[in-house]
Design a protein that fits this description.
heterodimer; A: 481 residues; alpha/beta; D-Maltodextrin-Binding Protein, domain 2; MetI-like fold; 3 domains; two-stranded antiparallel ribbon; 18 helices; 12 strands; 59% helix; elongated; B: 245 residues; six-stranded mixed sheet; globular; cell membrane (chain A); signal (chain A); Glutamine ABC transporter, substrate binding and permease protein (chain A); Iontro_rcpt_C (chain A)
C-alpha cells in the first residue's frame, strides 16, 4: 500500500511541478497584465479550430499591446465570471464587448468607448410570425446573463408581455432559439450579424435599438496605468487605420470565415476529431490534471477528517462533523465561485484559477471522503481497538496498525466511486475559466455549431477515461487484498 | 505474598444505573480468582475496569504497582503488564496469526522482529497451534482463535491475565481445549482473574471464587467452600440454577 501511495504522490508532485513551469514567463522590464475575455462572443472573441483566440477585441488588444509595449495573459471565461473576476482582483481588466452603462461605472473604470453597438431581436429562420416586439406577447425569449441584450429584454418585457430566460453563453442560447424552446433572442447587432453569417439558422427582425458603446473595463480605482496605455494605444491604431482594418476583418463583406468550407458537406465525426485534436487533448489533460491533483489531496484531507471524526476528543469530533456538514451541503459551483471570486474580494490577493479549482475539489470531495472514511472506521468492531489498547498500544498506534488498515479495506469501493465523481465534477470548474474537457467542448461548438457531434465526442472521452480509471482502481483493489 | 491487585470501594454508573456499588478486592501473586454471578451483576464491567477499558466513577485500583485510578498514570505502560482475553477473541483479521502475536512487542520496541517471531512460535507451540502461524485468523475454529488470543496476550509477557468469559462464544466441543490451556497457565503460577460460567473450571482451578450480584461482591472463598456451603441466599439461588440445569 505504501508503495503505490508513494507513486501517486510522485505523480502529483510532477504534475504540479510541470504546471508551475508552464506558467508564462514574464518579461522583467515590460508590465504584464491578466485580461479576462468572454469564451464566445464572436466577432469580438472566439476560439479558432487551432485553439487560438481571435476576434475584434483580441486583435485590437494585440495591436495595442504591441504599440504600448506591455504583455498580457488572456483568460477566457463566461462574461459574468469575468465581471466578478475583475471585481475580485483576480484579473486586471475585462475586454469582452462590454457596454458602458451607468450601473457598471459604479464598479468599473472604462477606457475610451471603442465600438458602437445596438440591440436587435433575432428569431429562428423558419419563424414567420414574429416580425416586431409586439408579436412577442405571451412568448419567452432568451438573453445572455449580464449583457445589454438581457437588460433591454428585461426593460421591454412588461411593455410587450413576454418572459425572459437567461443563458451563460451565446451558443446554448442560439440553440435554444433554433430548437424552439424560446422564440427569439436579444443580442448585440454585430454579434448576431456575425453568427448568422457563420451559418446560425436565425434572422434579425428589428433595427438596432438602445445603442451603446463598448469599453474596456478595469476595477474602479485601480490599474490606471493599464487604462492609460489602452487609451493611448487605441488612439494610435484608430489614427493609423489599423482599427478599421481589424473591424473589417470580421464584419466586412470579405471578412473572416470560421468555416472556410461552409458550403461543403457536413463534417464527419472523424474530421471533427482530427480538426480539434489539439484542443481536445489539452482539455483532457487539464481534466486529468485537476482530477489527479484533486483526488490525491482530497484523499489526504478526507482521511484526516475521517480520523478526526472518530477521535476520543469531543471537540475534534465536532469540528470534523461541522466541516463535513458544511462542505457537503454546499453546491460545488457555489464553492468554486466563493473561492475564486469571494476570497480574493476579502483578502485582496489573487488565487490562480487552477489552484482555486483544486481547493474547491479538495473541500468538496474531501468532505464526502471524510464522511465515508469516518463510517469505515466506525464499522470496524470496537473490540479491535480494545484488543489493541489492552496490549499496551497507544491510541495512535492502535488506530494506524489495527483499525485503519481494516477500515480502509471497507472503503475501497467508496474511493473508486468518489474518484469517478471527482473526474466528472471537474467539469463544474469550467465556470471559473478553467478550460478543461467540458469547456473545450463548449468552445469548439461555439465555433463550428456542431453541438450533437462534439458532445458525443466529449462524452465518449469521459467514458473512456472513467473506464480506464475503474480498471486501474480494480487492479489496485486486488493488489491490496 | 504481596497483593498485585488492590481494589478499594469502586463505584460505577451508566446514567442512573449503578453497576458497581463499592467493590473491594485483593489478589496476590500467583492466585487464580474466578468471578461468577448472574448476567448484569457487574463482573465483566469490573474486570474491564482493571485495565481501564471502563472508567470508574470513584474508588481506587492499583495493579502491578500502578494506580490506574490516577489520571496521571501512564495507562499504556500499565496495560503492557496486563494480558486480556475477550469473549469474542478480537484477533486482528488483516494480520496472520504470527503477526497478531508479534504486533505489540515489535511496535512497542520490546523485541526485535526476530526475537518476537521466536517468542511467537514458542507460544503458538505451547497452545498447540505452531502449524497455524502463517494463516489468517478467519480460517481458524473458535477454539483455535481463542488459543491464539491467549498466546497473543502472553507475547507481551504480562504479570497478570484477565479473562472475560473466554469460552462463552465457543461451540461446546471447543471449550475443553481452551480451558486446558488456561489450566496449564494457572499451574505455571500465572496470576489470573477469570469471569466465566464454567463451574467445573472454577472448582478445579480456582484458588478463590468471587460471587457477584447486583453490583456487589456477595460472597468469596475457596471453591469447595462456596460451592458446598454457600452462605448468601443469592449465591445459593444462582448455584442451584447453574448446577442443576
Amino acid at each position: 500500500m505504501h508503495k503505490w501511495l508513494g507513486k501517486v504522490l510522485a505523480i502529483v508532485m510532477t504534475i504540479v511541478g510541470v504546471g508551475m513551469v508552464m506558467q508564462p514567463a514574464q518579461a522583467a522590464n515590460k508590465p504584464h497584465y491578466t485580461i479576462a475575455t468572454d469564451t464566445t462572443y464572436p466577432p469580438f472573441e472566439f476560439q479558432t479550430d487551432k485553439g487560438q483566440y481571435r476576434g475584434i477585441d483580441i486583435d485590437m488588444l494585440k495591436a495595442i499591446a504591441k504599440t504600448e509595449g506591455f504583455t498580457y495573459t488572456l483568460k477566457p471565461m463566461s462574461f459574468n465570471a469575468g465581471v466578478q473576476a475583475v471585481q475580485a482582483g483576480q484579473v486586471d481588466g475585462l475586454l469582452a464587448g462590454m457596454s458602458i452603462t451607468d450601473a457598471r461605472k459604479q464598479e468599473f473604470d472604462f477606457s475610451k468607448p471603442y465600438y458602437k453597438s445596438g440591440i436587435v431581436l433575432a428569431v429562428s429562420k423558419k419563424d414567420h410570425n414574429i416580425k416586431a416586439l409586439k408579436d412577442l406577447k405571451g412568448k419567452t425569449v432568451a438573453a445572455k446573463t449580464g449583457t445589454m441584450g438581457a437588460e433591454y429584454a428585461k426593460k421591454m418585457a412588461p411593455k410587450y408581455g413576454f418572459k425572459v430566460t437567461y443563458f451563460n453563453d451565446s451558443n446554448t442560447m442560439y440553440s435554444d432559439v433554433m430548437v424552439g424552446n424560446t422564440v427569439g433572442t436579444f443580442e448585440d447587432a454585430p454579434v448576431m450579424g456575425y453568427a448568422i453569417k457563420q451559418g446560425t439558422q436565425m434572422k434579425i427582425v428589428t433595427k438596432p435599438a438602445n445603442g451603446g458603446w463598448y469599453g474596456f473595463g478595469v476595477k474602479k480605482g485601480s490599474n490606471a496605468a493599464l487604462l492609460k496605455d489602452f487609451n493611448a494605444g487605441y488612439t494610435k491604431i484608430v489614427d493609423n487605420g489599423q482599427f478599421d482594418q481589424i473591424v473589417e476583418r470580421y464584419v466586412g463583406e470579405n471578412g473572416y470565415q470560421a468555416k472556410e468550407s461552409a458550403s461543403q458537406a457536413k463534417p464527419t465525426m472523424w474530421s471533427l476529431i482530427i480538426e480539434n485534436k489539439d484542443a481536445l487533448l489539452h482539455g483532457l489533460f487539464v481534466t486529468l490534471e485537476l482530477t489527479v491533483v484533486g483526488i490525491a489531496l482530497a484523499t489526504i484531507w478526507g482521511l484526516l477528517l475521517g480520523t478526526m471524526g472518530v477521535a476520543p476528543n469531543k471537540f475534534i469530533r465536532g469540528l470534523s462533523t461541522t466541516i463535513i456538514y458544511c462542505f457537503r451541503g454546499l453546491p460545488m459551483i457555489v464553492l468554486a465561485f466563493f473561492i475564486y471570486i469571494g476570497i480574493p474580494n476579502l483578502t485582496g490577493s489573487k488565487i490562480p484559477a487552477f489552484t482555486a479549482g483544486v481547493i474547491t475539489l479538495v473541500l468538496n470531495e474531501g468532505a464526502y471522503i471524510g464522511s465515508f472514511v469516518k463510517g469505515g472506521f466506525l464499522s470496524v468492531d470496537h473490540g479491535q481497538l480494545e484488543a489493541a489498547r489492552s496490549l499496551g498500544l497507544p491510541y495512535g498506534k492502535a488506530m494506524r496498525k489495527v483499525v485503519m488498515p481494516q477500515g480502509i479495506r471497507l472503503m475501497i469501493p467508496s474511493f473508486i466511486n468518489q474518484f469517478i465523481i471527482t473526474l466528472k465534477d471537474t467539469s463544474i470548474l469550467s465556470v471559473i475559466g478553467l478550460i478543461e474537457l467540458t469547456q473545450t467542448g463548449t468552445l469548439i461548438i461555439a465555433r463550428n455549431l456542431q453541438g450533437f457531434r462534439v458532445w458525443l465526442i466529449i462524452a465518449a472521452m469521459y467514458l473512456i477515461v472513467i473506464t480506464l480509471l475503474t480498471w486501474l482502481s480494480n487492479w489496485m483493489e486486488k493488489r491490496i487484498h | 505474598m504481596a497483593a498485585i491487585v488492590d481494589v478499594k470501594n469502586v463505584h460505577k454508573s451508566y446514567g442512573d444505573n449503578e453497576v458497581l456499588k463499592g467493590i473491594d478486592l485483593q489478589v496476590t501473586e500467583g492466585e487464580v480468582v474466578v468471578m461468577i454471578g448472574p448476567s448484569g451483576s457487574g463482573k465483566s464491567t469490573f474486570l474491564r475496569s482493571l485495565n481501564k477499558l471502563e472508567d470508574i466513577d470513584s474508588g481506587s485500583i492499583e495493579i502491578n504497582g500502578w494506580d490506574i485510578s490516577d489520571s496521571k498514570t501512564n495507562i499504556d505502560k500499565t496495560r503492557e503488564t496486563i494480558g486480556m482475553v475477550f469473549q469474542h477473541f478480537n484477533l486482528f483479521p488483516h494480520l496472520t496469526v504470527i503477526e497478531n502475536l508479534m504486533l505489540a512487542p515489535t511496535e512497542l520496541g520490546k523485541q526485535t522482529p526476530a526475537e518476537a517471531r521466536e517468542t511467537a512460535l514458542r507460544l503458538l507451540a505451547r497452545v498447540g497451534l505452531a502449524d497455524k502461524a502463517d494463516v489468517k485468523p478467519d480460517t481458524l475454529s473458535g477454539g483455535q482463535k481463542q488459543r491464539v488470543a491467549i498466546a497473543r496476550a502472553l507475547a507481551m509477557n504480562p504479570k497478570i491475565m484477565l479473562f472475560d468469559e473466554p469460552t462463552s462464544a465457543l461451540d461446546p466441543e471447543m471449550v475443553g481445549d481452551v480451558l486446558e490451556v488456561m489450566k496449564e497457565l494457572a499451574e505455571e503460577g500465572m496470576t489470573m482473574i477469570v469471569v466465566t460460567h464454567e463451574m467445573g473450571f472454577a472448582k478445579q482451578v480456582a484458588d478463590r471464587v468471587v460471587f457477584f450480584a447486583d453490583g456487589y461482591i456477595r460472597e468469596e472463598g475457596h471453591p469447595e467452600e462456596v460451592f458446598a456451603h454457600p452462605k448468601d441466599q443469592r449465591t445459593r439461588d444462582f448455584l442451584n440454577k447453574v448446577l442443576n440445569a
